[in-house]
Amino acid sequence: MRRKVLIVEDEPDIAHLVQTHLTDIGCEVDIAGNGAAAMSLFKKGGYDLVILDLKLPDTDGLTLCRNMRASPDYVAILMLTAKSTELDRVVGLEMGADDYLTKPFSVPELLARVKALFRRMDALSDNSSDSAKQERIEWGGLLVDVDKRSVKIDGSPVELTAREFDLLLFFVRHPGRVFSRIQLLDKVWGYNHDGYEHTVNSHINRLRAKIEADPAAPRYVLTVWGVGCGVQIQRGAVKF
Ligand code: CA
């Protein structure tokens, strides 16, 4: 499957290096040298992945990331930055970046991250032959429409961010199983860094605030205390 990638990077050498390597693995690649050009290309749509430099001449990558996340179409975002402080990483992930790479990075490392994002997108979008029977998952009063990426509770639509949806989708596809926050980071965020469990926590809290009648006493997404402390979706239909 041919992937469309948008590189947002004001340093032409880096942009072209990344473009060359992504073209080699079969991607169709556009380059934007600033935020305005990036949004203009992005709005035409159709991108699977945006590689987004945090430092741009006209806007900052975090604002751009937030604007792209406001679009109804899901796109994977890999953020590039010269900074490597913990705070920047956390802010980037909270803004909705899917992964984070600190400059200077090696090409193999970049390609590994990009391929991991593509694999995760395949797993979540479920392009396999059983997608027809997977497209709507009902769970008590909870309805997850996989193709439309929409969620309803007792018939009322719930607005979820792309990441919150991915998290919920992962839970409903694995009913009753308990996952540690590290496992969720690996499976839903698609990478495995230590120290980002709070990112998972904040997403779970926001998801609960949106889908649970009483987030303090969740009926769908449960915290299971015990071995490693994990989170699971309640097995069996749950009705409010
Ligand atoms: Ca830059």
Task: Note down, in words, how this protein is organized.
With 240 residues, the protein is α/β, with parallel strands linked by helices. It has two domains: 3-127, 3-Layer(aba) Sandwich (Rossmann fold); 132-239, Winged helix-like DNA-binding domain superfamily/Winged helix DNA-binding domain (Arc Repressor Mutant, subunit A). 42% of the residues lie in helices and 22% in strands. The protein contains nine helices and twelve strands. The strands form three sheets. Strands 2-1-3-4-5 form a five-stranded parallel beta sheet, with helices on both faces. Strands 6-7-8-9 form a four-stranded antiparallel beta sheet, with helices on one face. A three-stranded antiparallel beta sheet has the order 10-12-11. Helix 3 links the parallel strand 3 and strand 4 (76-81). The longest helix has 19 residues, at 107-125. It is globular and about 50 Å long. The chain starts with a strand and ends in a 7-residue tail after the last strand. The structure holds calcium ion. Calcium ion binds next to loops.
